[in-house]
Specification:
Length: 372
């Protein structure tokens, strides 16, 4: 832990670092490849929408049902004529979900299931969802997501600038696309819990992005008054200075989510935990990646299209070429954060002991009252 803390301090001071912005084409290519894979999976397999969105019925059996999951799935499909999803819950009961059936037919299916499972019909609990209600849920989910994105863009444009708002918006779309694509490839059911997970990961993704943007905004306040760093250089320093913090917060958030996904959902068989935990797990990882590898490099690309930043980059590169011709170091890392943003021609700070002027009242308070 001490080594990690020392590394974080050195990254924050700019003594060491990785060129994230300089290698941005690699990250763009990786993100495009992952996004295309997610879109293809979404187009080919589609989303496994839950009954909350398309209507249907959910039947819950009593505890310690002796029938296997595969056998219960066969019984449910024979009774309904539709595909069924059966999940074994932690207490031994079963959750049988059948989508796309009429609510009038649910009683008949319930009676046939009870006969096949050798149970009393009253022991099976049935929850019915109409298709119109599912459509309303889907519309509200899309409306909530759209309002969230609009408010985020407006806030970032006011708090920072439109380029950062655009980069954050691209990162959010990147995270949503990857998460939805993973859902399509894995085949997990999309429920209201999935929507909750998506909205939650967007907040986490924005948190990491805003932390880097805040550091970038502070360090580029008077960037055109110096000729040591380009905007991309400062953007890269901002990523490195917040890198350890982003990794720590992401790992701490992923650990309990991984417990929900692999233990709660996989071992205990908790159905809705799968829906929420998968979206959280994939979204948190994608959000941490996009805030470091996508959002900030994209801001650097957009900013360096400005005439002022182009002129600054030209001056910085010219100065580095002159320094290299003289055999000097083209750039020196700034280790004093207090003077990291000062212009190069600023007056140097006073270093070493200073001679204090003699006090005129040095002789006062002595018995003779005279000076010596």
């Amino acid at each position: 832990m001490s080594k990690l803390g020392n590394l974080g301090a050195r990254l924050h001071r700019g003594e060491v670092g990785y060129d994230f912005v300089g290698n941005r084409k690699i990250w763009y290519g990786i993100s495009i490849l992952i996004t295309i894979t997610a879109i293809v999976g979404l187009a080919v397999r589609g989303l496994n929408m839950g009954i909350e969105f398309q209507g249907g019925a959910v039947f819950t059996t009593p505890k310690n049902t002796s029938v296997s999951v595969s056998q219960a799935e066969t019984y449910a499909e024979e009774a309904s004529g539709h595909d069924a999803i059966v999940q074994k819950l932690g207490d031994g009961s079963m959750r049988i979900q059948i989508a796309g059936i009429d609510t009038d037919k649910s009683n008949q299916i319930k009676d046939e299931l009870a006969q096949d499972l050798k149970l009393d019909s009253e022991q099976i609990n049935a929850d019915l969802v109409g298709p119109s209600w599912g459509d309303q849920i889907a519309d509200k989910a899309w409306q909530g997501l759209g309002i969230f994105l609009v408010l985020v863009v407006i806030y970032l444009a006011i708090a920072f600038e439109w380029r950062m708002a655009l980069a954050a918006f691209v990162a959010l779309i990147h995270d949503i696309t990857i998460t939805v694509g993973i859902y399509a490839l894995v085949g997990f059911e999309v429920t209201p819990g999935t929507v909750i997970g998506l909205l939650t990961i967007l907040g986490y993704s924005l948190y990491d992005t805003v932390v880097v943007f805040d550091s970038l905004k502070e360090q580029t306040r008077d960037i055109t008054k110096q000729t040591r760093w380009t905007y991309s250089d400062v953007a890269n320093r901002s990523i490195n200075s917040t890198l350890v913090r982003s990794i720590n917060t992401t790992v701490v958030a992923l650990l309990p989510v991984a417990g929900l996904l692999f233990i709660g959902g996989g071992v205990l068989g908790a159905g809705m935990l799968n829906d929420i935990s998968l979206s959280l797990f994939v979204g948190l990882a994608a959000g941490a990646y996009s805030s470091i590898f996508i959002a900030t490099p994209l801001v650097a690309d957009l900013k360096e299209r400005e005439p002022q930043m182009k002129a600054l980059k030209k001056r910085v590169l010219a100065k580095r070429a002159q320094a290299a011709a003289k055999g000097e170091s083209p750039e020196a890392p700034v280790t004093d954060e207090a003077h990291a943003d000062e212009p190069e021609d600023a007056a140097p700070a006073v270093v070493g002991p200073r001679n204090q002027p003699a006090s005129r009242n040095r002789g006062r308070g002595r018995p003779s009252g005279k000076r010596r």
